[in-house]
Structures are given as structure tokens and as C-alpha cells.
Design goal:
mainly beta; Jelly Rolls; nine-stranded mixed β-sheet; 12% helix; globular
């Protein structure tokens, strides 16, 4: 028995040493705060730490983006609650130097209705300076499908799921990641899995777009589309909960997206 215990102990030590060896192939899951390479914005609710109307949000990317909650939007751990009626998260940032190249958007959402009466935005900014238009919109369609729309200098492309991720009625927390590879492709991931897109023009083909031509003075909203930075231009309000809003200035690879989902989902378990 004593000999067996000694052998077991030795094997355990070897296994631990192998797991942490710099040459081993197994990668331990990242802590939610560890994946910060090229992160340009990160809002998440860690409990209310402010008072007053339209409270400010802390940017966990440490880039100093001054986010604010508008309307009746309020922190409700683990996210922010939006009632779908003129409330949203205002970033006070155009993110032009991010959206004019490759980028990724990650977000957790819990829609009040997976088939809303009208299309509702998870993320939205549209600058329409005639005759040119520039936009980045990630939204939930009335069909329950997710659409990721990009437009630069009046040239546009969009990716839309071939099969809906959301059904009618209240929905559970869901992780959505949208990636845009400059001048090439738009992709959508749900709960860490790449979604199959529809046929053209919903296939995410962005080869005809010059991302470097993206120019805007319009700030980005979470939970609504901001059209030309005018309050009467805000629309497509999202009703439900939003959490862990992140923007990266690079395309997140599939393995990192899977890791992001696996590591953060504990916050959003029912």
C-alpha cells in the first residue's frame, strides 16, 4: 500500500510539471481579465458603485472610454438591464481607428423576446453623411437570427445566420462574438461556436470593401443604434440584459472565442 501511494505521488508530480511546462501543448483556460491583448473597450457590471442619473461606467480595458448608462438603463448583476424604450449604453467613443481595420465585438445578452416586434441592436453606430455612409451594427432580427452589418464609404456587407439562434419569448443568457477581418469576411459565433451563414448577400463576404475608408464622427451605442449622434436618430432599442461588452482591434481566433465563452459563462449561469 505504501509503495502504491509513493508511485501515485510521483505520477501526480510529473503530471503537474508537464501541465505547466513551457513546451507542453495543453493550454489552461484564461482568466476573464487575462485576454486583454488589443482590447479597446470593456464594460461589465461588477456591482453599482455610483449614484445619480446617467451614471458613468468603468472601462476595464483601462483605455479610459467614458461609458454612461442612459434612460432607465441600470446595473443588475451580471449585466445591465435595458427596457427597450430609449435606454442604452453610450460609449462616448467613435472607435473609428478600430473599425477601420480588423476588429471583434463580444457581448453576453439575455433578450426579453427572441423574436422582437422590430429589429433590435446589441451594438450600433451609423454615420450618414450624404452621399456616403459608414456603419457597424450587430443586431437581433425579428426572425430570431443574428445579423452583423458593416459599411465603409457606402460599400457594405453583412453576415446573417442561416438558422435562428433565438426562439420566441424570453431567452437565456447567450454569448455572441462578431469578427470582422478587414477587406475579407464577417463571422458570427454563438456560445463559442461558429455559426453557418446564409447565402449571398448574407454570407459575410467583405472582399469588396475597403475598411481603411471607414470614417465617422458618430459614437457607438450598446443596446441601440446611434444614427449621426442625434438623440432623435437613436433607434432599434434592445430589451433585456446585456453584459461583458468588449471590443478588440483584431480578429479573435476560434480557440480564443471558445475560451472566452468557457471562462466567462459562470457569470451568466441561470
Amino acid at each position: 500500500m505504501k509503495r502504491a501511494l509513493i508511485i501515485l505521488l510521483v505520477l501526480s508530480i510529473v503530471a503537474i510539471a508537464y501541465a505547466f511546462s513551457p513546451t507542453q501543448r495543453y493550454v489552461l483556460p484564461l482568466h476573464p481579465q487575462a485576454s486583454t491583448v488589443d482590447m479597446v473597450l470593456h464594460f461589465k457590471d461588477s456591482g453599482p458603485s455610483w449614484t445619480g442619473a446617467d451614471p458613468y461606467l468603468f472601462d476595464y480595458s483601462l483605455n479610459g472610454t467614458t461609458g454612461r448608462l442612459w434612460g432607465t438603463a441600470a446595473p443588475v448583476f451580471p449585466g445591465y438591464i435595458l427596457d427597450g424604450n430609449s435606454d442604452y449604453i453610450f460609449t462616448s467613443a467613435t472607435l473609428q481607428t478600430t473599425f477601420d481595420g480588423s476588429f471583434s465585438i463580444t457581448i453576453w445578452v439575455k433578450p426579453d423576446d427572441g423574436n422582437p416586434a422590430s429589429d433590435s441592436a446589441f451594438v450600433g453606430t451609423v454615420s450618414d453623411t450624404a452621399p456616403l455612409e459608414d456603419r457597424v451594427v450587430l443586431q437581433l432580427m425579428t426572425t430570431g437570427k443574428i445579423r452583423f452589418h458593416y459599411e465603409s464609404n457606402d460599400d457594405e456587407a453583412y453576415a446573417e445566420e442561416s438558422v435562428a439562434s433565438f426562439a420566441d419569448g424570453a431567452q437565456p443568457w447567450t454569448c455572441i462574438v462578431a469578427t470582422a477581418e478587414a477587406d475579407k469576411a464577417l463571422l458570427i459565433y454563438v456560445n463559442g461556436v461558429l455559426r453557418t451563414l446564409g447565402g449571398a448577400p448574407a454570407d459575410g463576404d467583405a472582399t469588396g470593401i475597403t475598411f481603411a475608408d471607414y470614417v465617422t464622427t458618430c459614437n457607438v451605442n450598446f443596446g441601440a443604434i446611434n444614427s449621426d449622434d442625434t438623440p432623435d436618430g437613436y433607434h432599434s432599442y434592445f430589451a433585456g440584459l446585456i453584459g461583458d461588452c468588449r471590443v478588440y482591434s483584431r480578429v479573435l481566433p476560434a480557440d480564443e472565442i471558445k475560451s472566452f465563452y468557457e471562462v466567462t459563462r459562470w457569470r451568466y449561469s441561470e
